[in-house]
Amino acid sequence: MSTSYDVHLLHKKEVAEGTMEFTLEKPKGFEYRAGQFGDLVLPPSTGLTGDNAKHGFSFVSAPFEDTLRMATRMRKTSAFKNAAAQLPDGSMVQLLALWGDFTLHKNPAVPAVFVIGGIGITPVRSIIAQATHEHAPHKITLIYANRTRALAAYTDELQRLAAENKNFTFVPVYTDTQGHVGAATIRQHVADIAASRFYLAGPEGMVKAMRELVLDVGADEDNVRTEEFDGY
């Protein structure tokens, strides 16, 4: 069951080429698990109504942080995204939450492997930042694929988290120079494929391709969790 919150849009900024981040005030007492998401509802002043004024976004922010952050790849053909980008800082928006179970598993003995494309990084940044903050003992590997370095959001921060958290390994892949993530990439960076829990997030086509890939290299089908993003 979701709850509605009226919150201010504090500010917005570009966090990668074509990717915009929105920072919202965090409602008092608002609690969520890293990896979950909510719906952002734009005000009537945008001219959008009903479902056209609403879009679901994973929280980039981690639960320990004092604001809520969401990010999206911008598309000129999206009326919602264009309206959101033009909304003045300080505007009142609505947050409908809480959804999703794309969250880190409890058992620290099971390694976590994130195979992520593009905007799929949003819930993963939350999960890894929270795990680092809590000193979680989980072994975490992130394989993060983008076409170019400029298109990759949060890379600098992920590198800092990897330096801070000895249990976290960050593997950026830029497909324009390194080629796509394939079986060799998984085998090189994942010590025990059969024992690992795989997390796949991003646009639907990418997630389906990555699911086939990790199953082909020996992942346990029961150990594959996915989050497919609509509207990309």
Automatic annotation (TrEMBL):
Cofactor: FAD
Keyword match Iron-sulfur: yes
Keywords: 2Fe-2S, Iron, Iron-sulfur, Metal-binding
UniProt key word Transcription: no
Listed PROSITE patterns: FAD_FR (PS51384)
Domain FAD-binding FR-type residues, every copy: 2-105
PANTHER family (UniProt xref): NADH OXIDOREDUCTASE HCR (PTHR47354), PROTEIN RFBI (PTHR47354:SF5)
UniProt name for this protein: FAD-dependent oxidoreductase
Species for this entry: Ottowia pentelensis
